[in-house]
Amino acid sequence: MNPDDNIYLPRIAVVDRVSDEIPEVKTFYWHFEDDADQQAFRKFRPGQFAQVSIFGVGEFPASLPPSPTEDETFFTVRSVGSCTAALHQLKPGDKFGVRGPYGNGFPMEEYYGRSLVFVAGGIGLIPLRSCIVYALKNREKYDRILVFYGARSPRELMYLPSLREWERSAGIECRLTVDRKGPEDEWEGNIGVVGSLFKIPGTNIPVDNTIAFVCGPPVMFRFVIRDLLGLGFREQDIVSTLERYMKCGVGKCGHCCIGVAYVCTQGPVFTYEQIRNLGEDI
Amino acid sequence: MKARILDRRDVLKIVDLLKRQGYEVIAPFRGRGRDTFFDTVSDENRERIELHLPNPYYPPKRYVLPHIEPLLNAHSGNGGIRIQPTFDDPKRAIFGIRSCDVAGIYHLDRFYIGREFRDTYYERRRKNLFLVNMVCTDPGEDINRECFCMCADTGPASRDHFDMQLMDLGDEFMAVAGTARGEALFDDPIFRRGGEGHLKRRAEILNGVRSHFKNTTRSWFSAAVRQITQGTVLEKTWEEVGDRCLECGGCTYVCPACTCFTVSDRKVAPGEVERVRVWDSCALLGFTRMAGGHNPRRAVHDRRNRRFFRKLEHHFIERELSMACVGCGRCAAVCHGDVGMPSVVEMIRRATMETDNNES
Predict the structure, then answer these.
(1) Which of B148, B155, B156, B153 is nearest to B216 (CA)?
(2) How far apart are CA A28 and CA A45, in angstroms?
(3) Half-sphere exposure of B286 (CA within 13 A, CB side)
(4) What mean pLDDT is predicted for residues B90-111?
(5) Distance between CA A212 and CA A18 in Å, rounded?
(6) Exposed site from A27, A260, B127, B333, fewest CB < 10 Å?
(7) Strands (E) located in chain A
(8) pLDDT at position B222, please?
(9) CB-CB under 8 Å, B112 with A8
């Protein structure tokens, strides 16, 4: 970004297509109206985020689920507040605003040579999707890649086609679970919280020279951290991405500041060691 | 820095000089009773400008950071959206800004334009802002019960960051130029060179004024910085502060160094949306509440802890090379629960003394 740029000025983006992921969650494929903006934006890192503007409603921070190695840019967003509900109304061809990318992102290059363990719950898979796709694209750079993903029910598994593909692929070990299944759900897999996947006989989780990515609702986060520490993970080898109320994304509005850290500029990616020292609930 | 002398009767001519250069001049006035305020100088009110008066409750911060500030307009039509930034950055001069408020504006400078992601709106307005600092020399008028600039090291006379500083020497005023554009005003014949006597008089007056501050918080600020940084302030002290906080947000709205804002869109015409930023307050429950209702900072005392942590923790001071408290005392004056900065610093000190006594 040019230092003379107006940091609060969104660029115009156009919706290409919309796909339903799970109930209340949609994926919006989009591109910038101006190709120069598109080229500049494409240099984002996994784990960064963008500020999305729906003019007349407001602006909100959204994770970037695509990997920079992919051609398409998209957001996957749950309708939870006024801005996200307004985004959900958009149809192909509709315009909205985007600023970014912002934040530190995951230092994927620092992890070269190590094994990667991804643990996600619910829509916590959205930011981690970027890292998983990035790691698979650069498969030779990493040792083992494991994905443990849990959702409340089979109908709430995100990115299902990708999950099925990862389950079949040789380069990645992907284990799925659901908290419960309804009578009409066709589900042959594991039932239980995501941590229960660690205890399935035959599951071999690398610990040495391994980075664990954890993202999910606060209660899942607490239990998974306990499990990982129990397995022998060091606090600095567990990374996550924090969610906070944000208005600017550039360290000015003050809402996301925890302890001495602005989540928007110094985060949103922190190690568990850092999160614990920030002194506030996840 | 260059200094000049001018006659008392010529002081307001500085206002005229600035107006002639195209500045909108803001100066302090007195309302009915003890209330004082900043307002734009006109031909009608020029004679009522007060050189000595209690510092207005509402800080001059709004002239660089308006409490509601348009950022951009988005026009929709013909299938497209056009975004137009909205700038409002007139040439403005604040005549009679106090030293604490000069430090407040310097803090905003450090925060908004001193680091990565420079704030264009702030920067444009700040470039056009001329500061004429008035040194607080009248103990009866200038120095309130709540003032603690001595302790925050910002007053009673600013050392820097003004364009021109004025100090009342009696029949004469001393003017000090802090910038080239301040010095340029010295070309006017109202200014003349001073002598050793004037410097001596200045030193005498400043020494005298310093003895008029209440001494309660004079020596404990650095202790509070240290303890907050080390995390040794007891949870029960924060709980006590939280119990006394009425969550009105007053302390943040009168603070010359608070920087937080929220952003809001409003429809101003068919197909036209205005995006504004509005001062926000960490005292309010909604400050950290996310869509969906999860709020990581629910408890009042956690939010109060946040305010003092943000202002006194040394990482922030180091990062901004400036402290987010300038010792103006407005939070102490505005707070119904008496948990403004001086009181909290005192509560931290007292709690520590109790702990020390128990340990020994």
Answers:
(1) B148
(2) 19
(3) 7
(4) 97
(5) 31
(6) B127
(7) 11-22, 25-32, 49-54, 58-63, 73-78, 95-102, 115-121, 145-151, 173-178, 190-191, 210-215, 238-241, 257-258, 261-262, 269-271
(8) 84
(9) no
pLDDT at residue A254 greater than cutoff 90: yes
Domains and CATH numbers, chain A: 11-102 (2.40.30.10), 108-241 (3.40.50.80), 242-282 (no CATH)
From B115, which residue of chain A is nearest by alpha-carbon distance? A251
Q: Residue B293 — pLDDT band, cuts 50, 70, 90?
A: confident
ipTM of the complex: 0.90
**Percentage of residues in chain B with pLDDT exceeding 90?**
72
Average pLDDT over chain B, rounded to an integer: 92
* Average pLDDT estimate for B218-225: 79
Q: How confident is the model at residue B357 (pLDDT cuts 50, 70, 90)?
A: low
What are the tokens at B264?
């809001």
Contact A247 B83 (CB under 8 A): no
Q: Which of A95, A245, A279 sits opposite B290 (nearest CB)?
A: A245
Give CA A95 to chain center in angstroms: 24
Mean pLDDT of A132-154: 96
Contact B289 A245 (CB under 8 A): yes
pLDDT, tens digit, 9 for 90 and up, residues B118-165: 999 999 999 999 999 999 999 989 998 889 898 888 989 999 999 999
Separation of CA B267 from chain center: 32
Average confidence (pLDDT) over A257-271 = 93
Q: Where are the beta strands (DSSP E) in B160-295?
A: 164-168, 172-177, 261-269, 272-279
CA distance A72 to A67: 9
Give me A176's structure tokens: 């799925």
Q: For residue B344, what is the enclosing H or E element? A: helix B341-359
CA distance B350 to A101: 47
A258 contacts on B by Cβ (under 8 Å) = 296
B315 contacts in chain A (CB < 8 Å) = 260
Which chain A residues have any C-beta within 8 angstroms of a chain B C-beta?
3, 5-10, 12, 53, 55-60, 80-84, 93, 95-97, 218, 243-245, 247-248, 250-255, 257-260, 265, 279-282
Q: Is A6 helix (H, G, I), strand (E, B) or coil?
A: coil
Question: What residues pair up with A140 in beta bridges, in sequence order?
Answer: none
Give, in degrees to the nearest 5, the angle at Cα B298 between B285 and B57: 40
CA angle A273/A205/A212 to nearest 5° reads 30
pLDDT at A100: 92
| Interface contact A252-B71, CB threshold 8 A | no
Indicate the residue of A5, A255, A260 with minimum beta-carbon distance to B287.
Answer: A255
Helices B341-359, B235-244: axis angle to 10 degrees equals: 150
Give me the residue from B117, B288, B296 closest to A252, CB to CB.
B117
Could A251 and B292 be called an inter-chain contact, meaning their C-beta atoms sit closer than 8 Å?
Answer: no
Partner residues linked to B278 by β-bridges: B68, B262
Identity of the residue numbered B182: G
What is the edge-to-edge ordering of all strands in the sheet holding B261-269? B80-85, B68-77, B272-279, B261-269
**Distance separating alpha carbons of residues A40 and B299, to the nearest angstrom:** 42
